[in-house]
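Protein Entry — a single chain follows
Next Lines — sequence and tokenised fold
***
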Amino acid sequence: MNHHEEHVYSTTNMDEVTAGQHQIDHILNEVQNKIREGLFTEAEELLYRALEIDFEHLEVVDTLKCCKFWKERLPKLNEIHDDFERGEYLLNQWVAFQEFINRLTIPIERELFVLRQWLFGTALVHFKRVMRSQEEPDAEIVLRIGRCHKSTGNFEKALEYLESVGRKRREDAEYLAEIADCYALINETKAAKAFFREAFFINPQKVKIQFLESGLITRLVARVRDLGYAEEVLREWIPVYGVLFGVLNVKREMRPLEYGKLKQSIYSLEKRIQEEGSEGERQLLIPRLLNRYFWLIDHYVNAHENRVRVEEVLSKIKIVDENIYEQYIN
């Protein structure tokens, strides 16, 4: 083959690749429309057509896996007739799906965006029906409606619902994390940090991190996950590293009653760690205690307490975890 023929051959090849990619892009756009409507069988058929053009196309392969995941769940969804149960089933499957997508080859942002629209939009319809049937809106339903509005991108509406049950849920970590996420998504960063810090202080295990979307918290979660903590203890370490990484750095004054409860909680955790035989339990309690030590130091600094009190807490942190102590003081 002479030089001219080689050039013609390679140009033809390039043209074929470009044409193939255009076809696949067109199919993927159609697929996204099908997913937005929850038509996973139709989306699957289109994706098989795309694989005939390029059977190794990563976006096509991963989108197909996602469509299969949801297609397998539709029969079960269709068997459920109660609106609350249908909405709840969708949200529970979203939690399972989060683990599933961690195993995908590439981030398929466009497809996940429309899938989110379908799933949370559908759940929203069910939860709103439940709310309309109630004389007094149930706080659990309002929380879910807020979450669904947030996940379909209607952050102001989400806040409106969440704030309407705020007074009833001040001690609820799940609710506080949702409202924090909404604030972060509308760039009210200071409020977001304060609410996230509060949520993880009250009970990290109650925070549903699979539903949190703002970069503020998802980046922090990803960094803590990269440190290798097991999923069960991951939530307990998030507020600790939130302080160490300077993310959860908005602090507030504690009321005398809260200060008393904090001291009591610290004493109780210290005792449990000393007495606790199981390593699994200790792994949960240690980060929880460290976070309380951080809150106690903040209180002493805010109240202009004697420096000796701060030093006492620092020495306790050093005994519990020297590595965390080094990161905290530097």
About this structure: The chain has a mean pLDDT of 92. The first helix runs from residue 3 to 36. Residues 156 and 182 are 8 Å apart (CA to CA).
